[in-house]
Amino acid sequence: MIEILNPDELNRARATGALVGRILQTLKDRVAVGTNLLDIDRWTAALITEAGAESCYVDYAPSFGRGPFGHYICTAVNDAVLHGMPHDYALADGDLLTLDLAVSLDGIAADSAVSFIVGETQRPEDVAMIEATERALRAGIAAARPGARTGDLAHAIGTVLDEAGYPINLEFGGHGIGSTMHQDPHISNDGRPGRGYKLRPGLLLALEPWVMADTDELVTDADGWTLRSATGARTAHSEHTIAITADGAEILTLRAP
């Protein structure tokens, strides 16, 4: 299903996106060495409830997971990159943490992810990997405009990741979003320009470049959800929900400091 939002729905999408951005920034500001992943999940649940919103994850049970997910946020640490299930783990100095959050408010969903380093110890290679996914995300957003094709966005993202030297996995990528979290069209993190669905004003897309330092192969944890690099290498993931407008792309999930 591909949804094209009307002006009222787009305004509601802006409100949802702003909420997701605020929650992610609040969580990032709270996280410190010693923070438990289960505490992050509890904080997220409280923030969503206080806003009168709903989690897109608690009851989420797609074919690729062992659902329902049962938590309010994805918390991926170090070699985990996608669908990180919160568990009893206290973050250590130098851990690379990804928070991935999807929320629905007034019937419209928004989805965003941020990777960052916990504490004071920052490995240069971790910083470079996070920055590469952020550059790739900016490139994908810059390519998004009415009349562009999904392949144009995929190519822009993939070019940045490839030039940075990272293998690219095409199993999971960006997606349409609207009244539900995951919709068509799929946006791969690499592709050929001029191919795919033609973008139209009112379309919402969640773009999400992610990489693993030295592999494109994933393995799944025993929890049936958490996806890790097959080599144990560290990972990074950046995501924003955008709206296609007559003027280009509007980022809905900005995180204000």
From TrEMBL:
So where does a divalent metal cation 1 get bound? Answer: D100, D111, E239
The GO biological-process annotations, alphabetized, read as: proteolysis
In this chain, a divalent metal cation 2 is annotated as bound at: D111, H175, E208, E239
Q: How does it assemble?
A: Monomer.
Instruction: Cite the binding residues for substrate.
Output: H83, H182
| Cross-referenced Gene3D superfamilies | Creatinase/methionine aminopeptidase superfamily
Gene Ontology CC: cytosol
Could you list this entry's UniProt keywords, alphabetically sorted. Answer: Aminopeptidase, Hydrolase, Metal-binding, Protease
Q: Where is the Peptidase M24 domain?
A: 13-246
Top-rank taxon: Bacteria
Cofactor binding annotation: Binds 2 divalent metal cations per subunit. Has a high-affinity and a low affinity metal-binding site. The true nature of the physiological cofactor is under debate. The enzyme is active with cobalt, zinc, manganese or divalent iron ions. Most likely, methionine aminopeptidases function as mononuclear Fe(2+)-metalloproteases under physiological conditions, and the catalytically relevant metal-binding site has been assigned to the histidine-containing high-affinity site.
The UniProt entry, under InterPro entries, shows: Creatinase/aminopeptidase-like, Pept_M24, Pept_M24_MAP, Pept_M24A_MAP1
Q: What is this protein called?
A: Methionine aminopeptidase
EC number annotated for this UniProt entry: 3.4.11.18
Q: Which purpose does this protein serve, as stated in its record? A: Removes the N-terminal methionine from nascent proteins. The N-terminal methionine is often cleaved when the second residue in the primary sequence is small and uncharged (Met-Ala-, Cys, Gly, Pro, Ser, Thr, or Val). Requires deformylation of the N(alpha)-formylated initiator methionine before it can be hydrolyzed.
